[in-house]
Design a protein that fits this description.
The protein is α/β, with parallel strands linked by helices and about 270 residues long. The protein is built from 13 helices and 8 strands.
């Protein structure tokens, strides 16, 4: 199995043996971070995995769009500003330490996040320019903000890959990105287990070579659970395979889908 979007540093709060579980489940993952402490922890996991022949960890970095409200109130951390965060992004990219830029994008879920829209705009432009300059994949977070990303289609087309984390759009919107020549991948997590009809329909009908699996660990937990982890991947994969079987789509077998999504994952994150 592969996990296209997770937060190992944050998962430690709920599961101190998170790295042990990742290895036990044989999961390669893309680890997302927004500050240096998190990034260096993920970088350490990646280095150790390479040395020990364990499933790889790919390191991603970005200022999450939800941080815009914190930046407005000066609460992300002492001395950590938008400017400092973006300079760190540029530095990590120029040093060749990034496997992808993300998660970045827009979050207009409520009035609190909408108030920081201008900051989100500023942050996204810098993230996009960095990904373009260093030919890095871009991982997108778009909550109630799909309209914000379409104007950047021409730029997205120039990137090696674009991952839509926890795909929030419709079938038509996904097809529109592909028609525009964007090397787009649509990532699905536990929302398909929560009866999210739109996500389920997309997971059932999108081309198999465009689908990724994710946990967003620890943040996409199921009802009755406190966190999500790599052990959720098996159920996510099974659910999507069943949806595809019902729809008459290719890759309706769980094992085949696991192989295809694994191949997709490495197409995105392996240089």
């Amino acid at each position: 199995m592969t996990d296209a979007h997770c937060h190992p540093w944050d998962l430690l709060e709920y599961l101190p043996a998170a790295e042990k579980e990742r290895r036990e489940t044989g999961t390669a993952c893309a680890a997302n971070s927004w500050n240096l402490e998190q990034f260096e922890y993920h970088e350490g996991l990646a280095k150790k995995a390479r040395e020990e022949g364990a499933p790889p960890v790919y390191c991603c970095f970005a200022l999450h769009p939800q941080l815009s409200s914190d930046f407005m109130n000066d609460t992300p951390g002492a001395g950590f500003t938008v400017g400092a965060g973006l300079e760190l992004l540029k530095s990590l990219a120029s040093e060749g330490r990034l496997d992808a830029v993300g998660e970045t994008g827009f979050d207009l879920f409520d009035d609190n996040y909408k108030a920081g829209e201008k900051i989100q705009d500023e942050m996204f432009i810098c993230h996009l320019e960095t990904a373009l300059r260093h030919s890095l994949p871009l991982v997108l977070h778009l909550r109630r903000a799909m309209h914000k990303i379409f104007p950047f289609a021409a730029e997205l087309k120039k990137l090696p890959a674009v991952v839509f984390h926890s795909w929030p759009g419709t079938i038509g919107e996904g097809e529109a990105f592909l028609r525009r020549g964007i090397n787009a991948f649509f990532s699905f997590g536990t929302v398909v287990l929560k009866n999210h009809r739109q996500a389920m329909a997309c997971a059932a009908l999108f081309p198999p070579d465009r689908i990724l699996l994710e946990t967003d660990a620890p943040y996409q937990h199921l009802q009755g659970e406190k966190f999500s982890s790599w052990r959720n991947l098996d159920a996510i994969c099974s659910c999507i395979a069943s949806l595809r079987k019902e729809a008459g789509s290719p890759c309706a077998d769980k094992e085949e889908l696991a192989q295809v999504t694994t191949g997709n994952f490495f197409r995105v994150f392996t240089p």
